[in-house]
Amino acid sequence: METLKIKHTAKSRLAGKKDQAIIGVVASGNLEVLLERVLPDTRCEVDIATTAEGFDDTWKAVVADFVERRSPGGLRISINDGGARPDTVYLRLMQGAALMEAE
Questions:
Q1: Would the pTM count as exceeding 0.70?
Q2: What pLDDT sits at residue 26?
Q3: By C-alpha distance, which of 13, 11, 7, 6 is closest to 68?
Q4: What are phi and psi of 97, to 5 degrees?
Q5: Other CB atoms closer than 10 Å to residue 48's CB: what's the count?
């Protein structure tokens, strides 16, 4: 099991008022993402627990792309990964952000 912590400065706070959202399930080839609105407006932290070791650069690239496109300021994101592909990780992050923004 590998754990990673990635920190970013977002352009702005993610829209919406929900305090938290959870998306996905940890199962074969999938992941669970918990988003919590607990940080200052432009900070974003992503904690990752994964069974797939040696993919630090891939994780950093996926998270950086997500931060650039969605600007998830104010969020701490916890990811429990069961071996998901990068496109699935990105999809779950985008779905989680959409849930946080929903009224």
A1: yes
A2: 83
A3: 11
A4: -65, -40
A5: 23
